[in-house]
Amino acid sequence: MPISLAMACTQMKMPPVEAITAVTINAAYRVARGSQIGSLERGKRADFVVYDWRDYVELSYFSGVQLAKTVYVEGQSVFES
Questions:
Q1: Is the pLDDT of residue 44 over 90?
Q2: Helix/strand/coil (H, E, C) string of the chain?
Q3: Strands of 76-80's sheet in order across
Q4: C-alpha 77: how far from chain center
Q5: pTM tops 0.90
Q6: Nearest to 16 by CA among 48, 59, 45
Q7: Which range marks the domain in which residue 42 is found?
Q8: Residue 40: is its pLDDT beyond 90?
Q9: pLDDT tens across 5-36, in order?
Q10: Considering its fold, how many domains does the chain have in total?
Q11: pLDDT tier at 42, thresholds 50, 70, 90
């Protein structure tokens, strides 16, 4: 996922907010699962990562570096640094 975001921002000149949307909710709808995954909403599967960053824009700059603070799968913490 990080490399997809980095490439979208650096090679395709997409703003980080558009790249994040493309790899989350838009991708979920592309595989006909947008009602189940792809965004944090009540009733959807809660898989997400918490990063210790100042701004979401940093997500596209650190591909290949493990900077996750906490990882959640189905709403349950499965990793903490």
A1: yes
A2: CHHHHHHHHHCCCCCHHHHHHHHCHHHHHHCCCCCCCCCCCCCCCCCEEEECCCCHHHHHCCCCCCCEEEEEECCEEEEEC
A3: 48-51, 68-73, 76-80
A4: 16
A5: no
A6: 59
A7: 2-80
A8: yes
A9: 889 998 999 999 999 999 999 999 999 999 99
A10: 1
A11: very high
